[in-house]
Every structure is written in C-alpha cells, then in structure tokens.
Hints:
Blueprint: H1 2-24, E1 46-52, E2 59-64, E3 68-77, E4 85-91, H2 95-103, E5 108-109, E6 115-117, E7 122-125, E8 131-139, E9 149-157, E10 163-164, E11 172-179, E12 194-199, E13 221-224, E14 227-232, E15 237-241, H3 244-251, H4 253-256, H5 258-261, E16 266-273, H6 285-301, E17 306-310, H7 329-342, E18 347-352, E19 363-364, E20 367-368, E21 375-378, E22 398-403, H8 414-419, E23 424-428, H9 435-441, H10 445-449, E24 458-459, E25 468-469
Parallel strand pairs: 1-10, 2-11, 5-9, 12-13, 12-23, 13-16, 14-16, 16-17, 17-18, 18-21, 22-23
Antiparallel strand pairs: 1-3, 3-8, 4-7, 4-9, 6-8, 9-11, 14-15, 19-20, 24-25
Helix pairs in contact: 6-7
Amino acid sequence: MKQKYLITGLVVATFTSCLTYLTSCADDLVIDTTVDESAYTGIYENNGYLRDGKSNLASSVIELYKDTYTTSVKMGLSKAPGSTTSAQVIIDANYLDTYNKEHETDFELYPEHLVSFKNDGMLTVDVQTKSARTDITIQADGTLKEDKTYALPITLTHTSSDITIKDEKAGHCIYLIKDMRKLGDTYKGEDVVKSFVFFDGTNPLNALSFQLENGKLLWDVVSPFAANINWDAQAQRPYLKCNSYIQYLLDNNEVFLQPLRKRGAKIVLGVLSNGDITGVAQLSEQGAKDFARELAQYCKAYNLDGVCFDDEYEGAYDPNNPALTKPTEEAAARLCYETKQAMPDKIVAVYALRRMYSSKVTVVDGVTMKNWIDIVIGDYGRDPSSNPYGDLTSKECSGQSMEFVRGTGGDLQGQRLINQGSGWFVGFSPKPENYSNVFRRLSDVKTLYGSPLMAPTVFYKDNDATPYQYPDDLQ
C-alpha cells in the first residue's frame, strides 16, 4: 500500500514540475501548426465519373442493326451526396483529338445531328444514391459509311460544386459506332447466345454452309487458327508470324475473309505462341505495347475484327531481353490491355487456358478486366461462364466448347446455355467430310434462335472460293 502512494506522489510531482516548465517557457516556445495534408487529399471529395449505362464501360462499341439505337449514359459518384446534386452530358467533339492521339487511331466524329439526349442530358443524383443516368438515342442515316468505325465522345458539364472530376478520362466516355444495317445476316438478336468457330487449316468460307431456316448465318465470329508470336532477331522485337495457311488467307483476303464480313460475321485472328523465346504470356510492358501495335496494324491492313490469344507452346524466355519477362498471369493480362488500347474498336478474345485468363489479375493500370477482354473461350469440357472472373459476366464467356474432329465437348445444350446466362458457344474445326456429325451435334440451335439449322447444300475446298455441292462433290 505504501508503494502505491509513493508511485502516485512521484507522478503528481513530475506532472506539476513539467507544467511549471511549460508555463515559464511559453514566450519562447513556437509550435508549428502546419500539417502536411497531402495524405488526405480527396477524402472529402465526391468524385464523379462517366460510363455507358448498359455495359458500365468508359469505351463501348455499338453496332447499329436498326435505324435507331438507345442506350443510357451514367454518371457515378464515389459516395452518396449530402444533398441533391446534378450535372449534364453533352457531346465533346474536341476530346476526339485527345483520344485518337492516345490510342494512335483516326476515328471520325459520329454526326452530331444524329444523336439526342433525354431531358437535354440532365442528370440528377438524389440523396442516398450514387448514380444517375439518362437515355441517349443514336440514329442512322444514308450518310454513314459501311464497315467504318465512328467515335462519339460524351462529357460531363455543368456539374454541381460538390462534384469533383479528377481528370479528362473520368469525365468522358466514348462510343465507337459501326453501321451494320446491311451486314446483318448473322444478327439473331441483341441478347441471344452467340457463336464462335475456329477453322484450323480449313477454308473459312465453309462458315457459309451453316445457315438457319430463317436465312440467318449460324456463326457470329470466324477465327482462322492460328498466326504466331515470334521473335525478330534483326529488329529485336516480337512480331506476328503467319504460317502458309494464314498467309494465304491474308494475301487473298478479299476472296476468303471479306465475303464473310459482308454477311456480318466477325473475323478474329487466332494468335498462338510458337516455341521460341516469345509467348503471349511472357512479354514485358514495352514488348506488349510493341506487339499490340503490330496486331492493330494487321487488323487495319487486312480489315480484321480482332484477335484471340492462346497461351500454349511457348519456349524459354530470355531474362536479359527487355522485351520479355517471366511467364506470368500479369504479362498475359498486360498484353490484352495493351491490345485493347491499340485497337479499342476491335475484339480481344482469350482462350481460357493457363495464364491467359486468371482470377489472379483482373485489373491492369487501374482498369478492370471487362475493359480489355471481350470474349472468354472455354477449353473443351470447361465452362468459364459459370464462374466469370473480375467484373466480367457470363455474357462475355462461353458456356460450351465443341471439338468437331475428335468429337469432344458433347452435343450443343441450348437450354442449359440460356438458363445459366452464357454469352457464347464455341466450335472447333468443322470439316466438310464430317458435316453429318457436326450438324447433328448442332441440332439444338433451334432452342437458341427459334429456327432450325438447314442441312448443308454447299461446301468449299481448300484455297478455292468456288461453292461446291454437298455432298455430291466431296470426292
């Protein structure tokens, strides 16, 4: 007990002594009241951003199959406002120059007189909500050029004083618009399950053999499989190497590929590793930028609609090469991101195998996966639509993949795909000599599209654009 009192007395005495000292020195003591507030910058701000209301993307591709298309544009806030707040969306033609410079593109402005906003583009965010949207209607007319991408930049303006737009990208969204009204033979509806087919050494014109009784073509995307990523020792960079099959198709692009595009099919070039020091999942950031630019040049030169990456068959990388890096999910995601940056109006698809599609990396440079992957192709027997990664949804993923040579992947299960919300189904290498089995396996397309698949009447031989009679001319 005495010890307790002794300790208490010492504490009181010490406190009294210190108080006396501070009082006597008050005239000499200068306290710096300046606080470094940089760490707190933005915590009181309500940051606004602009997105397409349907896709939640800052850059959205719109294909016009009818004379009028309506979507919504959405302003989101980082937190609910304390009181009702507002802003307005308008077309920002000047921003297109900035966008084209950033992406090294040359998009022209979509005709402004064909665009209208509901309520003059006014947006009102009520208390306890964090977003508001308004409709944007896009008309089409005879002045639009087919097979051309136009850009429509939208920006926020007249924002309330409590809304902060931290940079140009946050305050803009851009629509990349294509007139598809005369290219609609594959269009079977906006919200239906779509189809993707790979042709491996076979004439891709055979996609025309697959037609529904209502006149629509079955395959939405046709992918010649495959070009390769290789190392150019002289130029010291990765480059696209085309084998004889791919090169022949590109050299005769107007004969074997463009007829499909004129019917509405998308041509997406398969890109596969090829056993040397490069690979689609082992490029450095600079290597990915360089290769993405080359892919964009190919797509522009040959009028292709995108690429599909397959992470297989790579060789050992060179750790001393600045264009390369250790094979990782991060490197694979980086290539997808840089490819989308280089050609934002094109398709970036991935074969969901190994590092090319992973839950480990769903964001690159602050940009989420849905902004740099458009289609996820499942391996045979796998269903990525049942568990999409990041902010992707089942609509961007295939629910079934069928291999038509070995017979793996089962028969098409249309109702299952509809029930689980899958966006795609996939076929690989439908060869005319196997048509009887291929068409049997696809018989359930009627469930998907309300129209059965017609029996084949024509087919195409290799390197020949002549339509031959099926099955009479098979021999």
